[in-house]
Amino acid sequence: MEVWRLVDLDVAEPLTAQTFYEAVAKAVDQGLSPNTIILVQPSSPYVCLGFHQKLEREINVEFCRSKNLSIIRRSQGGGAVYLDSNQVFYQIVATGESEAIPLSVENLFERFLSVTVYVYCKLGLPAEFKPLNDVVVNNRKISGNGAGKFGENTTILVGNVILDLDYDMMANVLKVPDEKFRDKMSKSMREWVTSLKRELGYMPSAEEIKTLLVEGYNKLLGIKLVKSEATETEKKIWNEEIKPVRLSKEWLYMPEFRHEGLIEGRAVKIAHGVKVAEVEHKAKKLIRIRAELAGTRILDVIISGDFFMVPESALTNLESNLKGAILDQNDVLNRIRQFYGENRVQTPGITPEDFAEAIMKLRNFAET
After folding, report:
1. What are the φ and ψ backbone dihedral angles of 309, each rounded to 5 degrees?
2. 24 near 94, Cβ under 8 Å?
3. pLDDT digits (tens, 9 = 90+) for 101-138
4. Which residues pair with 310 in a beta bridge?
5. Angle, in degrees to the nearest 10, between helices 206-221 and 105-122
């Protein structure tokens, strides 16, 4: 039986609810805080953008501004999502020394989401874990989850128990080609995503959910949670280090700031056979490639999408590895495999071959 700390932040404003666990992760990684599980609900609605996504490609920014919705980029991959107080967040922060933490991200999801499954089952629903990172009831998603690393030795897993859903808001915050497509997306969400209120006919209290989560971590994972408060050190880290970065334009527009020459609107450049092209590839997660090409050579490349990469920050190294590559299957795949070997990354559900297949779609635009 391992003893961990439980920090219940109750209801917190969106930036705190979404990012305070990063301050805890830094403290845990430095040995200043014990392994911790945080429980929290956001006090007001906001939109959360995946780490590798481009803001204006994924989010209907105008609509969000009209509704005074904050847009926050998270530190994990995955897709953009609308969040509000009808979700109970759980945020797991622990070092690799814990016997509860598996080595692979896939196993991490399966192990810790068994507790999320437990909560729904205790409420009378036939919940199941669905790889890579979902919990489903009657074949509909009822929990979204992400994972990552912080520092050298600290693992993070974040997710939610969904009390209720606003399908129209979910559809409206996302960028779509036209209103007909938005209507179709809203209908699709109703078919494939659900909530406790929809399944049970009522909404259990947040306190009941928290009680069941604590019970599940104890019974299923052998973790005894002792309630405590966030430390002054953690609050200082959040206020002085995490909060300013997460509020910065550079963080919100991260992919664009990394590659200013590849921003939206520069679809084609005609100069000495140089052009910019964009392709998409749907594996288990979406991979989007935008590249500057001189013939079949990659001059610059930006990779985005709703995939996970652990650590997420390693993506810039993959982009660097691909600069100068010829659009040849062997050259591209060898560079990607080299990146995996040198950076010891994990991309749950995505393989080097998936990235290579996405890159090779650029050949359709290359001038030979």
Report:
1. -140, 130
2. no
3. 999 999 999 999 999 999 999 999 999 999 999 999 99
4. 346
5. 130
pLDDT band at 270 (very low <50, low <70, confident <90, very high): very low
Buried b (16+ CB within 10 A) or exposed e, 244-264: eebeeeeeeebbbeebeebbe
Say how far apart CA 37 and CA 6 lie, in whole Å. Answer: 5
**HSE-CB of 354 using CA atoms within 13 angstroms:** 18
Query: Domain boundaries in the chain?
Result: 2-254, 259-364
Q: What is the pLDDT, as a whole number, of residue 225? A: 98
Residue by residue, DSSP assigns 166-194 as -HHHHHHTB--SSHHHHHHHHHHHHHHB-
CATH H superfamily, domain 259-364? CO dehydrogenase flavoprotein, C-terminal domain (3.30.390.50)
Measured in residues, the chain has a length of 368
Q: How far is the C-alpha of 334 from the C-alpha of 188, rounded, in Å?
A: 39
* C-alpha 215, offset from chain centre: 26
Model confidence, pTM: 0.90
| CATH architecture of the region 2-254 | 2-Layer Sandwich (3.30)
Among residues 80, 62, 85, the alpha carbon closest in space to that of 14 is found at 85
